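Priority: low. Protein: PIPK domain-containing protein. Input follows.
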Amino acid sequence: MGRQEKIALSVVRAIIKTSGTNKRSRNPIALILALFSAFFSLYQLALRKVRPADFARLRQKHWNVSDDDYTGSFQTEEDRSEEESLKPIGDMGFSGSTFYSTADQKYLVKSVPRYSEHSFFSEDLLTPYVQHMATHPRSLLVRIFDYLAASGSSIGRMLRLTPSHHIVMDNIMYGRAEGEQQGEAEWENWDLKPTSYFYPERDIAGGALTSEATKDQLADEFRDKIILRPEQAEDFFSSLEADTKLLAEHNAVDYSLFLVRRRAPQHVSSSMPPPAESMMVPDTGPPLVPPSLPTWRTGVASADGKYIFRASILDFFWAKHKIQPKLMTLLIKLWNVLVSKHGPMSITTTSDEYRERFLELCRSIVEIKEDD
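Result:
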């Protein structure tokens, strides 16, 4: 069993722990052997749920997801082993995070390997996040269904060979595989953040010192418009205002808007307003869960009837007051003084300034279509 499979197995067992497992752990000899094995493990860590009651309350009370449905996504078929219920997506981005998808595509598991990021979420943002998501049903912040952390010491954890923290979150690309199998056009997606900041990979020597693969991991650009009716735009902007206010209050920067676009099932001519029923997107399972009205998680139909859009705010774990961000801020300030003045990076600016540019970006990709 390789590294990816052992990490997956650790996550699955943390999600679907049974009472039988707990009973076996009471045997002293079994407990000693388990602790010994865990300490010398390189990749398979003993994970625990952090604040399980809070996340269970969000799932059940506010998101209408039962425990049976939730854990069912992590269950295996008879001909598969436990770790096969999670499919590795790969290492993505600059953070070194690993990604997995449940076999049914409903949930993603993302590792949070940096101490500055998982300590920020644990110590600063977790409680405000839970409260915000309970009181803002139309929030664009990605829905986190569980937060897992390693318990106890191990060689793999000390050597940082495997991530010690993971989040289980919504997959707003859910339904793509099924749709494309039914002949739908390929779904498009963009990871959007302000591009006017200083990006060393792009801006030093015109990007000649960095590979194209590295530069491809920078923020995307959406070279089109989301055409919305006034009430749709108001819903979008008000959610963005509330969500980014929370993030700015807790010093978060460098988050992004993940935007998904697919063709509407029944194309409506742009010369005619779409009928009311075409504005509705059916809720058929996570992330398509109540509220029944269209949301940016379930899919909002564009005012011209051509597309269905989904959107979510991701990667809000980078906070300016943590040690690593402070060091990066100092380095960029020195660079601007001693080498060349480029201004701040998206990870070294202030949270209020980042929020302002992020909201400006989001407004710039929307075109409002007034009712005829």
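The chain has two domains: 3-170, 181-368. The longest strand covers residues 256-263.
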